[in-house]
Amino acid sequence: MSSDEDCEGQRFCNLLTTGTQLYLKGEDEKAVENFTAALALNPDEKNRLVCRSRCYMRMGQFEKALRDAEASLKDDKTFCEGLYQKAEALFYMGELEYALMYYHRGHKLRPQMKDFKLGILKAQKDIINCINTGKTRSLSSTAV
Fold it and tell me: Does residue 54 register a pLDDT over 90?
């Protein structure tokens, strides 16, 4: 391995560490910048796509969150973290039936992962509420 590769690998690790720390502090915009820079070095790093998707979710940028979640699934349709992020993005975009479908796919792959079961329950509840009230779901009343 050359010293250029060593430096690039170290830079990648530093960006990931900083991005994660910023995310944990709630500094999502800065975290997105770090994850984006890391992804420029390694565009197919599916875990970082999920991390950036989570940031976008907290920022209310659901379309961007969905795009990153889908990109994380590009090479592995069974990547559970990507499936969960896609389901969450769809849920908060009001695409309840599609969200439910992805929560079920994830639950089938990882039944021990409680987030999938909770996602199934909340999507079913919202679908029933929409049917009973005849109204669409209001995103402004939903917290991420």
Answer: yes
Length of the chain, please? 144
State the pLDDT at residue 5: 65
Cα gap 103→128, rounded to integer Å: 16
**pTM (two decimals):** 0.85
Which of 58, 52, 90 is CA-nearest to residue 71? 52
Q: Give residues with Cβ within 8 angstroms of 34, minimum separation 6.
A: 15, 16, 18, 19, 22
Structural domain harbouring 61 = 3-134
Unique residue bearing structure tokens 């499936």: 83
Look at residue 48 and tell me if it is in a domain. Answer: yes
Instruction: Give whole-number Cα distances, 98 to 13, 17, 86, in Å.
Output: 35, 33, 9
Evaluate whether residue 101 is within a structural domain. Answer: yes
Using CA atoms, how far apart are residues 51 and 36, in angstroms rounded to an integer? 10
